[in-house]
Amino acid sequence: MAAFINSMSGNKNMAAKRRSWLALAILLGTVLTVTAQIASGLLMAWANMHLRAFHVVNGLAAAMFLAGEWLWLLFSPSGRVAAQRIFLLSAQSRHAFGRQVRAPLQQGPLREGLGALVEGIFLALASLVVLFGFLIWQGLGGLLPWHRALALLLALLWLIHFVFTGLDHRPRKKLRKENNP
């Protein structure tokens, strides 16, 4: 897959490219529907709330948005650059990841290393959880324990991504220049 994405991107620079409005709408839809899936799944499991109909309909919407996200990643030039970043397929993203593992919170924004890896794993896992949910909806109830376990892992990744985003956007201390008289 790495060779496919690298060969099709034509752009070896990992600088962030702007998403089109359509790609932004797909990303927003993906984030909102997957977050709603996590919330409704947790409410059904722990609070015994009856949200099955919402969970199924929202899951179908999440599947459509996730498919759109994968299509953007595979077939759009800016999507292929993003895929190289979130799946650590470029040397630059792998180096950023390595630096951050050796010295966390000191080597630039997490978005380029650890955060990117979490985003890639989250997208792949969310796609798998939604696929399992679809198969359960089609009558393969034996997948329910796997669906639940992977959904809990997905919720943990969501929380980690949320923390990384908060750390990346926290106010930074500015160095004061002292004027010596």
Notable traits:
181 residues; mainly alpha; disordered N terminus
Class from secondary-structure proportions: mainly alpha
- Radius of gyration based on Cα positions: 19 Å
So how many helices?
A: 7
Biggest sheet features = none
N-to-C SSE string, H for helix and E for strand: HHHHHHH
Distance between the termini: 61 Å
Q: Approximately how much beta-strand content do the residues carry?
A: under 5%
Describe the model.
71% of the residues lie in helices and 0% in strands. By secondary structure, it is an all-alpha fold.
Question: Quick summary of this structure?
Answer:
The protein is built from 7 helices and no strands.
Summarize the topology.
Layout: H1 2-9, H2 21-46, H3 52-75, H4 77-86, H5 91-102, H6 114-137, H7 144-168
